[in-house]
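yo

u said u wanted the structure for the complex thing, so here. seqs first:
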Amino acid sequence: MPKEEEKKEEKKGGFFKRFGRAARETIYGMAAHDTARFALKTRGSMEHLFILITMGDLLGVPILPPYYSLRILPYVVPQISTWKRRMLRERDLTDALA
Amino acid sequence: MISIRRCAIPLADIFEKFPDRRYIMFGGKGGLGKTTFSAATAYYLAKKGHKVLVFSVDPQASLSDIFKRDIFGKGAVEIMPNLYAQEIDADRRIKEYQEEIRKKILDMYGLPKVPEEIEGYIQAAAAEPAMEESAIFDEVVDIVVKGGYDYYIYDLVPLGHALYYLSMASVYDAWIDKITHLRGEMAEYDKVAALVKREKESEEDKILTELLWIKDRINKSSSILTDKQKTAFFFVIVPEEMIIKDTQKAAGLFAKFDVPLSGYIINRVIPPELKSQDIPEYLRHRITMQDKYLKLIDETFKNEILASVPEMERDVTGLPMIEKMANAMFGNGGKP
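structre next:
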C-alpha cells in the first residue's frame, strides 16, 4: 500500500478512536463522575481520619500508641501537610455543600 | 527450714506436672522479691538441665545486681551453663528504631534530610512515657518469637505496671483491629473509584500490610501471655495486711486479662522456730503479727499457696545465695 493511503487510514482510525474516547468520557462525565468523585472524597476523609488516629500527636491529640504509629509514619509523610491544613482550618456552612 | 503447712502443691511439682508451661512470670508489689524468685527459678531449672533465659521487662531492671554482673543492654548473657540473663536497654532500642524510621523516609522519598515537622514528631514520640514500655514490649516479642530456650522467665515490673504491660497486648490489639478495619474500608472506596474510572486495580496498600504485620506480632505476644498451657503466672506475697489486700485486688484484675494464675508464693517468712529461742520482744511481736497474717493468707488464697520462703539472713545476690533461695523455693524449704 502506498504511504499516503496508509496515512489516510491512520487518520480515519485516529478519528474513530478520538470519537470513541470523547463519547466514553462524556458518558462517564454524565453518569459516573459524581460517583467516582464521591468515592475519592470519602476515601480522602478517611485517609485524614486515619492519620488523625495514628499521628494525632502532631496536632497535640495523643492517641495510643506512639511506638507503632512511628512504623506507619513513613507512608503518610506526603499527606501530613494537607491533613494538618484540613484539620486545623475554620469551617463554615459551605463545607457541607462541597 | 520452717514448718509449713500452707503449700497445697509444692512449687517444684507444678514444674514437673506441667512441663509445657515454658513462660514463667512472677508478679507482685515492688520490693517483695520478684527478681529474686525469677533468678532462683532460672537457677533451679538450669541446674535441672533446661536452657533458661531470664529477662527483665523493667526499665529499672535489677538482674545485673542479683547476678553481680553488668548485663545491661548486652543481649542474652550466659551466667552459668544453661542459664542466660538479659536486661533490655530500652533507650538504645528507641534510638535504633527512630533511626530506622528516618532511613525509611529518606529512602522512600529520596530526600536529603527528614522534613522538620516529621523530625519533630519522631523526637516527640520517643519522649512519650509509654515509648519505653512499648520498646521493651517489642523486644520481648523479638525474644520469644526467636526461640532457642526451654524456659523464658519474665522478671516483671511491680503490679500496676505489670497490669499495664499485660494489658498493652489487648489494648494494642483492639487499636490495631479498629484501624485495620478503617484501612480496609478505605481500600473499598479506592476500588470503587478505580472501577468507575475504569482504571487498573488500585495498588496494594502498604500501610495495611504494615498494620497486619504489627497485629501479627501483638497477637503472638498476647497469645503467650494468656495461654494456660504455656504460661505460669505466680504472685509473690508477704505476710502483711496491705500486701494481701492489694494482691487480692490485683489477682481480680489479672483474671480479667485472662492471665493464667498458677498460685502464690509467700516470701520473707520469719522462721517461727525463733519463738522458742531467747529473742527480743520486738521480734516476738513481729512473729505474732506474722502468724495472724499467715492465717489470713491461708483463708484468702486457700489451696493456691505453692511455697513459703523464709526471710534470709542476708541479701540474695550472687550465685551461692541464689542457690540457697532456689533450695528454699523448690527444695525441702518449700515442701510441707
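Chain B has two domains: 11-88+150-164+227-334, 93-127. The interface with chain A takes residues 97-98, 101, 104-105, 108-109, 115, 117-118, 121-122, 124-126, 128, 130-131, 134-135, 137-138, 168, 171-172, 175-176, 178-179, 182-183, 185-186, 189-190, 192-193, 196-198, 206-207, 210-211, 214 of chain B (CB under 8 Å).
cya
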